[in-house]
Structures are given as C-alpha cells and as structure tokens.
C-alpha cells in the first residue's frame, strides 16, 4: 500500500496508477484508471481531466474507502484502544 496514494485520495485528488501503485487498495473503483503502459497512463490522465462524472465517482469512492480505514475517526479509535491497553497493562 502506498501512503502517497492514500494521502491523495483523502484529499480528493483523482488518481491514475499502475498495478504496483494500486497494491493493497482493493477498491479499483477508487481510481480514475489503473494501467501499466505509458499510453494507457496518458489516456487515464486525459480521461480524469475530461470525464467529470467518472472522476467525481472515483474521488468519492476513494475518499469513502480511505476515510473508513485511515480517517480521523478510525485514527482516534485506534489511539483510544492503544491507550486503554497501556492503561490496563500498567495496573
């Protein structure tokens, strides 16, 4: 999983990636395009710039996926659980 990709998605930046760049993110609909060649990559960028509906759908899907796994609420839950474990182990 590439955290630069996660960061882009959390900031609602449309993402075009290679299969290597998309590893660990199982939600393919979160990408404008996933391709492995230069022409396909260029086409994906052009599509992301010209097809507003597809771009917005990918951005929305990506944000929802990322927010559920890495967003502030999830982060707060994880920190709370860690704090609770530390508190319990110190007794």
General description of the model:
- The chain is 64% helix and 4% strand.
- The chain has four helices and two strands; from the N terminus they run αββααα.
- The chain has a two-stranded parallel ribbon.
- The protein is elongated and about 60 Å long.
- It starts with a helix and ends with a helix.
SSE arrangement:
Blueprint: H1 3-10, E1 16-17, E2 33-34, H2 38-50, H3 52-70, H4 72-89
Parallel strand pairs: 1-2
Tell me the strand order in the biggest sheet.
1-2
What is the general shape? elongated
Structure summary, number of beta strands: 2
Structural class: mainly alpha
Residue share in helix: 55-70%
Task: Please state the CA-atom Rg, rounded to the nearest Å.
Answer: 17 Å
Described by strand count, sense and barrel closure, the largest sheet is: 2 strands, parallel
- β-strand percent reads under 5%
Structural descriptors:
91 residues; mainly alpha; two-stranded parallel ribbon; 2 strands
Offer a concise description of the structure:
With 91 residues, this protein is mainly alpha-helical. It has helices at 3-10, 38-50, 52-70, 72-89, and strands spanning 16-17, 33-34. The chain has 4 helices and 2 strands, in the order H-E-E-H-H-H.
